[in-house]
Design brief:
Layout: H1 2-26, E1 31-33, E2 36-38, H2 60-75
Antiparallel strand pairs: 1-2
Length: 77
C-alpha cells in the first residue's frame, strides 16, 4: 500500500513537472537577454510594422501656442 501511494505521488509530481516545462516551452514570449531581444518562436507570422520618421519636435502646435501666449504677455494683453 505504501509503495502504491509513493508511486502515485511520484507520478503526480513528474506529471506536474512535465506540464510546467511544456507550458514554459509553448509560452512563446520575447526574451531580453545579454543586450539582445530574442523573438518568440512565431515571429515569422508577425506582420511587419512601418512607422515613418516624424518631426524632431513632436509638438509644433503647442510650441507655436506657447510662443504666441508669451508674446501677448509681453505686449500686455
Amino acid at each position: 500500500m505504501k509503495l502504491v501511494k509513493k508511486l502515485t505521488r511520484m507520478g503526480t509530481s513528474a506529471l506536474l513537472a512535465l506540464f510546467v516545462l511544456v507550458s514554459l516551452g509553448l509560452s512563446g514570449c520575447a526574451v531580453y537577454t545579454q543586450g539582445m531581444t530574442l523573438p518568440n518562436p512565431w515571429y515569422h507570422n508577425n506582420i511587419p510594422q512601418y512607422h515613418p520618421r516624424g518631426t524632431e519636435f513632436p509638438f509644433p502646435n503647442e510650441a507655436a501656442n506657447l510662443q504666441e501666449a508669451e508674446q501677448s504677455i509681453q505686449r500686455g494683453n
